[in-house]
Amino acid sequence: MRDDLTEEPSGPCRTFLDFPFEGDLDDLKADIAILGIPYGMPYRPGEMANDQSRAPDALRQSSEIAAYTKTHYDWDLGGTLLDDQNVRIVDCGNVTADMSDHRVHYRRAEEAARKIFRAGALPIILGGDHGIPIPVMRALEETGQSGITLVHVDAHIDWRDEVNGEKEGYSSPIRRASEMPWIDHIVQIGIRGIGSARSQEVADARSYGADIVTAYELHELGMPAILDRIPNGGPYYLTIDADGLDPTIMPAVMAQTPGGLTWLQTRQLVQGLVSKGRVLGMDLVEIAPSRDVGRITMIHAERLICNFIGAAVRAGYFDR
């Protein structure tokens, strides 16, 4: 029976890497569930959702060699994507809602994420702006896990309490996460430049105990040293804002800021975190497809997700 919380993607590549579509979240049988939350909050009053709303389907449609990606030797992983294991991956499509009302979208997104967690699947969330992890992180309650470490990649700290009265927008996800009792330690990686924070937000983040790792500290120390600062064993939730990566590899963002994570650092983080302990889920947000250059962003986004999947498989997440 189909679940009306989501709808099937459209376009020439209908699902991510042509994995089967599964619209029944009440009877979900999967190890990994890909879910699009295609909402990009308007930047100005009166506007409809912004270009980031197109990102989930744009990413799905960007892969022209899905079979090749799934079956050929992947040098990032040291073998095929699923390492010849029987890992069940489905694409649950996109959360449906009135794009003019993000509260409806968030409510449905949280319900969909709760069903995925309840089914024991590992969610990979495709955004959308950086507000969309808020309902997903609320749904982490469903896992029954406490003491979750939130690992956040971004150019901005996203600790704004509200912007023009909006408390659940793209500048506030980490502030909202800090209020959730199941979130404990917060590590923020790649922070640089300006935007998203005034002095009070920086003070609030530090008062909470967030470990703010600037991009410059990261480049000086290296990703292995930063991974050592993340508590061992998990559980973790990973949220990646595309502008946390350097614009030379992810140009399709609204706020390009030089000095971000390189591809090698991103791969080290994803694979290193998965090997440290259980990652309960991840999201990739803030991609604006119309701003891409030569598909550079989409290529790196797909590689990032494949590295996450391949690392989880090799870490024994789905051993039976």
Task: Summarize it.
This protein has 320 residues and is an alpha/beta fold. It has a single domain, classed as Ureohydrolase domain (Arginase, Chain A), CATH 3.40.800. The protein is 31% helix and 18% strand.
Hey, roughly how much beta strand do the residues contain? Answer: 15-25%
Shape-level CATH architecture: 3-Layer(aba) Sandwich
What characterizes the major β-sheet?
9 strands, mixed
Number of extended strands: 9
- CATH topology tier name: Arginase, Chain A
The residue-averaged pLDDT reads: 92
As residue ranges, the low-confidence spans are none
Shape: globular
Number of helices: 10
Helix-strand sequence: EEHHEHEHEHEHEHHEHEH
CATH class: Alpha Beta
Please state the structural category: alpha/beta
Percent helix range: 25-40%
The separation of the N and C termini measures 27 Å
- With strands numbered from the N-terminus, the spatial order across the biggest sheet is 1-3-2-4-9-8-5-6-7
Q: Name the CATH superfamily classification.
A: Ureohydrolase domain
Overall radius of gyration: 18 Å
**Total of domains:** 1
